[in-house]
Each structure stands twice: as C-alpha cells, then as structure tokens.
Amino acid sequence: MSAATLCLHHFAEENYALEDYQGGVPRWCKGCGDNAILAAMQRLCRDEALRPEKTVFVSGIGCSSRLPHYMRTYGFHGIHGRALPIAEGIKLARPDLHVFVNTGDGDCCSIGAAHWIHAIRYNMNMTVLLHDNHIYGLTKKQASPTSPIGTRSNTTPRGSYLDALSPLTVTLGVQNVSFVAQAVDWIPESLFQILTAAYRHRGFSFVRILQRCPEFVGNMFEPWVHDPQRMLMLTHADGIRVSPALQKIYRNQLPHDPADINRAREIASSEDPIPVGILYRNPEVPCYEDLRGAGKLRTADQVRGTLDAELDKFTVWPQ
Amino acid sequence: MDSRLRSQVVFHLTGRQPDDGGAEQPLPAGLRPALLAPYRKLESIRHDFPVVLAAGPGEYVVSLAAAVDGALRTAAPQGLQGEAMRKRALHIERLIREAVAKGAQGTLLQAWDTAVAGAGTDDAWRREMTAVRNALAVDGELAGCDSRLPSRFLRHAWAVVQGDKARAARLRIDALVLRLEGILRADYARSAVAFQVANLQQTFGGSHQALFNFATMSRLLSPAASQGGLDTPRRARIEWALRTLREQAFFPPPGDPGAQEANNGGFAFDNVSAALESCRHRLPDMLSLLKALSLAELEVEGQFVEQLHAPIFDGMQSQDFTAAELQFFPDYLVTLDSDAPGVQADLGNALSSGMPVKVLLEVRDLLEEAAPGQGRFSFGMRGSQLASMAMTFGDAFVLQSAASNLLHMRDGIQRGLRHAGPTLFSVYAPADGESTLPGYLAAASAMQSRAFPAFSYDPGRGSDSATRFSLENNPQPDVDWPLEFLTYADQDLQAVTEELAFTFVDFLLADRRHNRHFAVIPRAHWGEGLISARQWLESPPADAATGLPYVLAVDDADLLCRVVVDERMMRAAQRCRETWHRLQELGGIHDSRTEALLAREKAAWEQGRAVDTAALAPAAIPAAPGDQPSIAAAVPDTAAAEDEAAPNPDVAYIETLRCSSCNECTLASPKMFAYDQNKQAYITDLKAGSYRQLVEAAESCQVSVIHPGKPWNSDEPGLDELIERARPFQ
C-alpha cells in the first residue's frame, strides 16, 4: 500500500477504544490472572490501532485458550496443543493478519511441545502468550509440566515428583529463537510494555506470563505478589524501561542487554527473584514466511490457469 | 659528495638524469612493485575474477571459483576419486580464467564446454566434467576484471533490482486489478441485465441449453436483481483505475525476460540530460498510476469517501512525490565517464534532481597529469574527488570502489540500487594498456595504495556520519599505508623477510606514462643515503642527500631492485595520504576532535589521580571491572525508597497501577469503583458505598491493591470488626 493510500486510510479511520476489542463477558474464576492478560491485550490492540478485521487470536485448549472468545477480533479456538500449527497456517495463507496465540502451560509445554519447538525454529511473525499458571485449571487441578516439584494435585496427590520444566530456558535453547520475554499478570504495566515489544518484534515473539490461579493453586505466587522486592525488573535501552511510578514499587532492577543470549539463559534460570522483562531479542533471524516467499496474492490469470490445468487432467473428450 | 650520489640527488630533485654519466639505468620493461611479484601469473591463482553475472534466483553475482567450489561440494565424492575430480575441475576452471583474460565471452556453461572440449579426450574424464557442469548452481555471462567490468556489473545488478521491483509492483497491481474486476463482476452478476434471457443462456454450455426454459428462468430470477447497484461515479472511478492499471507501461508482465530487458532499455542512458528529460516526460503517467493505485486500494477496502478523498486526489501533483513513492517506479541508470567534459555539472544535476537516478561514474585514469603551464604538479584525481563531493548531497547514496573490489561490494551495490533517492557509484577500472599490470592488479593496487579508496555513504543507515559512512573493505584502514611482508632470497640465497608498505608511489611505478620519474639504482650503488619511501613519507629529510626515497621493485625475471623516486612523485604521495586522512576522519579513525578531547580528559584524569593516590587508602581499591552484577544481589535502591513519602494510612486509596483488572471490585460495588481507560480500577466515589463494602472489596482483591483507610461514617454498624478486618490492607 502506498504512503498516500496509508495516509488516506488514517485520515478516514476512527480511533479505537478498549471496548472495540471487548467480546463476551469473561467466564474465568474469581480473581483469575487471565483478566489482566486480556486487559493488556485489549490495550495493546487499541494503542497499536490494530484493525479488528485484520487481527486474529488463536488458541488451543485450557483456561487461557478461552481468551479469543473475549476479543472482538477474529479468533480460532483450536484443539489441544495445536494452536501453533494453526497460527502458522493462518500466517502463511494470510500474511496481512496480526496473529496472536494464547496457550497454556499444559497446552504448549505438554501435548503441544513438539509444535512449540518447531514453531520457535520456524520463527514466523506472530506473538505467542504462554499463560503459565503451573496447573491444569480447566479440568480442575492436575499437575502440568511447569508445576513445581511437590505440587499436590488430582494426578499427584503425594506431590509431583519431577522438577518443573522452564519454558524460558527451553525456548532460548532452540535454533532461530528471536524473542523471549517474561511477564507476570500482577504487574499490568510491565505486562503491557512487554506485549507491545513482542508485537513490534518481527518474528516469533514468545512471552511467558506467570499467571495466578486463585481457584486451584491460590498460594503459588503469593510471596512474589506481596513482596515487590522479590521481583527483578530487567531494564535496558533496547528492552523495557520501568516507569518512575512503577520504580517506586519495584525497586529491584537489573540492567540486561537483550542481545546477550548467554546472560539471558542465566537470568532465565532464576526462579527467585522472578525476572520480568525482555530476556532476548534478535531481529536478524529470518522469518520462515520470508524465506519461502509465502502468501503472495494470485492474479486472476494464475488462478484461471491453475484451475484449467487441474480440470483438463480429468476432461474426457468425446471421440 | 661523490658523483654517484650527486647524480641520484639531482634526479630526485629535478626528475632528470644528469649529463655527467650518473650511470642510472633506464627503467626496465615489466617493472612492478616487489609486493606484486607473487601475482605474475594471475590466471593460475584462484581469485575473485572472472565473475558470473548470474541469472535467476540467489546471489546475482558469484565468483567463478565459488561457483566451481559449490558444484564440487555436490558432485565430487569423498576420497581419492573425489580428489582427482576436484583436480580436473580446477584445471578446467583455470582454462576458463585464461580464456576470459584473453577476451573470451559467453556464459559459464558455454565456457565450461569449450574448456572441456579443448582439454581432454578421455570419455570417463568428460563424464566427470559433465557431472560437475550439471552441478553448477549458477549460470550467466562471465566477466573479467577489465575496463568494461563496471558497466557490465552495474547494469546486471540494476537489471536484477529492476526485475525484483517489477515483480513486486506487478503483484500489487495484478492483485488490485483482480479485486476491482471482482467488484464489477459482482455488480454485474446481481444486476437485471445478467438475468436477461440471452445472458442466462450464455452461462450454460451449448449442449445443455435445450434442457432449460430460459425465459421462465429469467422471469423467476429477475425480481431478485439488485436495485441500483454501483453508483455512476464509483463505477467510473473503478473503471478508470482498472484501465490505468491495465495500461501502465512501467512494469512488463512477469515471466518474460525479453520484455523486462526491453523495458530496462528505456531507463538506461549515457547522459544525464536525456535521463532527466525522459523522467520528466513520464511524470504524468507516474502520477496517474499512483493515483490509480491509491484509489484502487481505497475502493477494494470500501474506504473511499467521496467528499473526503475526491479533493485530495484532484489536488495530487507530480511535484509532491515522496522518495518512497518514486522508489516504486523503475530507476534510471546513467553511465558517465569521469573524463568527459562537464561531468561535474552533470553529476550535480543528476544528484540534486530528486529523481530516482542511479549514476555510474566510470573512472578510467587516476594519474592523468594536469594541464601544462600550471605552477604545481598534480594528478588529475578527479574521480575520487567527485565521489567525495557527492556526499554533500544529503540524500545521495555514494559508493566508491575499485573494479577489483566490486564482488565484495555486491551487497552495498544492491543497497545503493534500492536506495530511495539518487545514487552514485564511482568505480575505478583502468583503461586497457596504460598499466604494466593486468586490470585486476592495477585496480587492486589503486585501492591498496589509497589512490582510490573504497567507501560507502548510505543515508538510509542512520542520521549521522558514524552510521552512514563506512571504509569497509580497505586493507588495514587504521594506518597510512597497508603493511605486508616480503620474503626473498638474498645474494647468498638466504631467506630475508622485510616489512613493506604499499604506498602511492608503488601504484605509480606500474604506470608506463610515469616511468621518467623513477630510476633504477644498480646494486653496487645502494648506499647509506637511500631510505624507503615509507620512511621518507613519515618524516621527509631536510637534506635530500641524506635521504633519497626508493621503492623495492621486481623486473621481468623477478630480480629485486631499488628504484629512486623523484620529489614530485613523493609530494603527490603526500597529497594522496592527506586525502586518505580526511576519509579516515570521516570514518571515525584518528578523529582529530575526538583525539584532542581524549587527550584533554586523560590529562585531567591523570592530574586528578595524582591527587587521589596520595589520599587513598589501600582498602579503597575498587572491585575488578567486567563482573556482571549478580541476579540475586541486584540490590534495591533503598535510598530512593526512603525519599518517598508514605501514603496516609487513614485515607482510603487504590494502587491503580497494580490493578490486574479481575472485575471483583467493579462488580461488587459498581458505584464505588470504575475502570480507567486502561481497564484498571480507581475509586470513583467513596461515599457511594459503605465502609463494609470497601473492606470486602479489599479482601476480595487478589493482588491486595485496595487500602480501606479509616471509616468516614462513625454511625456505621460493626465498625470495630471492620477496622480489624481492614488492618492487613493498610
């Protein structure tokens, strides 16, 4: 689209409000952290003026995956663990859409783990939100791959036996990783900043969001929610900056250059304090859709030519 | 002073051989700088040339050696058999290199076939070479490093960029045509005309027409026809845009190289005025196409508003084109000769025209002497000066390089061709026959000796010189002259290694026209008074007799000799070095202002340190630098914390910034709490609810950001219990 056209588009467009992205009434449990993620997402859409008809939210199965229902944009509530391949298909066929993926720790890191690894490697331009509450909530409390060791649940009544999987270190270990960040639902401002940076990054932006589940693991993040000093804000000119108002609360800060992957891996391994910010960003990693030149529009002649060629294969000419 | 030394000094000072039998030898033919001795048989050395001007996807230009290496990686098996195959393929590569050096033309595959045909008769051998040929991933015209290279290289690169541009533009245009046609087709399909008997009949195959009653069908369908359809102005707009897009003459249909080549021909010129005239002539068509594109994009999105957009389209003028809009159209390629009269004015016109003009300035001669009669000897080094001057045109992309370096500059050349603005490529390729060296070496030595340094100035990279200007690819850019080691056998056949600088004088030595400025000194006359040209340039001696500059050279038989240089050449070398210094400063090397600042700060620091050293105790030594701060020990800024005034615990407040939008408080007490524009809660009216509601809201807040303060209504029942419940949230 030419500069003139864009200008004219902007001329004619109205400003969006948060309500323009508000779908149905959220049906999450009382106090669920997903509400904060939904609010940050709607704020991002509004501030980036994403046209609802050009935006799609894709999800798998789980509490997190209900989010597309609450956005007044396009949405695709997929099947368990398969949000990423669906999102990749959408991006290939419709590169003009802004693609967001909402997935949970069970959806992404368990049944969908294989898709997750390869989606990182493909580095297609989309923003992935991993709602990580350390538990299967929708099915009423079963241990997930990110449940800390000792978590008592319906499937692990004596406490889980294995160390939790760290989605951050896994992502940072895959080839072609281009953007990794961590946010928490109880610091909405930094969540919004991180999601904005993730959206603006061209490539596979992976944001792990630690999310409270007051219903089933109400105490999981309590120490960090109520003690701001146990949060570690990563700051950098190329990362996010903590606003003066937030600095008054979250004083524990660590300068971290997102270009430094080794340091990112070190920080990603920290569980206490919880790091919040952009761990790694590399805008130079090529996107799969660019490498394949995918998603080009087809002209009328090309469509007709292909159809004719296909139909001619099966034509029986009268003798 | 003996006669030998006197004659050398006279030569150095005057450039003339003395008449008193100084016995200096005339300059032997084929003399070249000693550092170039290993490259006498250039064709037998694998180097960047010839290059393949590749057609098709992938790199647009690759060296012959890289192409053969790539093919061998695929075709040659591991082990002895593979090694033999590699050896034979490299022999063919060498034959091709020799053929191109002798002027052979054609594509890589043609040259390969010719070389194989002339090289051997063994069938197995031919089969192997055919396998390598089939594995060659690229094909295209071969180009050696001769005087024609810059124009061939640039023309090819330009054609590749034009092809990419045309493809992208056609995709955009064809997609719009498709969608505009869709609008008209949809309108027609729902119109009453489409439901007329004759038109309905046409939609069925001939053999089935008899089976249907089209009159009845028409009667039944006609009431369903849409009333009105497209309004007349919109239809006219769409039809105009469609016509303009279909008839545009800037981008030929994709998939037809002949049409693309013919189209390119209309945009390539050898003089600036013709190119600009052609550009001006095309402006109305460019304006129409841009209008049609914008209009079509608005129409297909259904965003065209007559009252809003019509005046804007009516007012669009070609003078308002932005660089980005101009970039959409094909660029103009203008090839200029740096020695042509009026080239400076032409270049100024081209670069300031605001048109997408890509200028190739072919510099053939760096050593042409200035017109006679001038008081001071100087070289006509206009070529490099023109490129430096062009950098003053703020938005112009400038790239200067010797022809030998073009392959390494291929990415820069692509950037220049894709630059949204005028571009100048200044390329030095020596005219055939002026130098005793082959074209590749002559061009490379111009760059090596700083006579024609490579640089690029890319306004698209940033807003300051540090990001825009680059001295990339120059050998050892931080020193005056590149230093290399030369190893040779002395008279006793012992190996001697010497560090030599490749100076401007070495470059001059290879030019036949300047032989008179050099004189070979017989070995018997190598005396104390001789110093290397590099040494002379670093500190010219006050007395010529104590420091006669020489350069090391080799003759046809690779015998080493010393060659005295006259003073005029040495002065020219000094000027060359000054020009190089200016470029270095632009590139941030030895920046005089920074160095002055650094010296001042260093002096101040040392002065301060001297004072501190006396006062400091040993315990005050700081921690070792370079340690990363520990993650666990990232200490909070407690000083700042103490500065903050604590909120009044008696007054209710909410930390809006930390609200996680969970809807609890807003649903429980909608009159007391509301969301702000970011969907974070704040207290609207405290008195709209009771203290009990406030305390319950604080208890239900999952992130504990509601602080109830003290009750405001002392008559509220159960206050004591509520105050107790509120205590944890104060």
Tell me what the structure shows:
With 319 residues, chain A is of the alpha/beta class. Chain A has helices at 3-12, 34-47, 83-93, 105-111, 113-122, 167-172, 188-200, 222-226, 244-247, 261-268, 288-291, 300-313, and strands spanning 55-59, 74-77, 98-104, 126-132, 135-136, 142-143, 179-184, 204-210, 231-235, 253-255, 274-281. Chain A has one domain (18-289): Rossmann fold (3-Layer(aba) Sandwich). In chain A, helix 9 (244-247) links the parallel strand 9 and strand 10 (253-255). In chain A, 48% of the residues are buried. With 730 residues, chain B is of the alpha/beta class. Chain B folds into five domains: 3-39 and 481-584, no CATH class; 50-144; 151-189 and 232-324, no CATH class; 330-370 and 378-470, no CATH class; 647-729, Alpha-Beta Plaits (2-Layer Sandwich). In chain B, the strands form six sheets. Chain B has a seven-stranded mixed beta sheet, sandwiched between helices. In chain B, strands 1, 14, 15, 16 and 17 form a five-stranded mixed beta sheet that branches. Chain B has a three-stranded antiparallel beta sheet with strand order 3-2-4, with helices on both faces. Classes of the chains: A alpha/beta (319), B alpha/beta (730). Chains A and B meet through helix 1, helix 2, helix 7, helix 9 and strand 10 of A and helix 6, helix 11, helix 12 and helix 23 of B.
Please summarize what this structure is.
The complex is a heterodimer of chains A (319) and B (730). Chain A is 33% helix and 18% strand.
Cα Rg of chain B? 39 Å
* Superfamily (CATH H level) name of chain A: Thiamin diphosphate (ThDP)-binding fold, Pyr/PP domains
Give the helix level of chain A as a range of percent: 25-40%
User: Could you tell me the radius of gyration of chain A in angstroms?
Assistant: 21 Å
Look at the structure and give the CATH class of chain A: Alpha Beta
Low-confidence stretches of chain B: 371-377, 617-625
Given helix and strand content, the structural type of chain A is alpha/beta
Low-pLDDT stretches of chain A: none
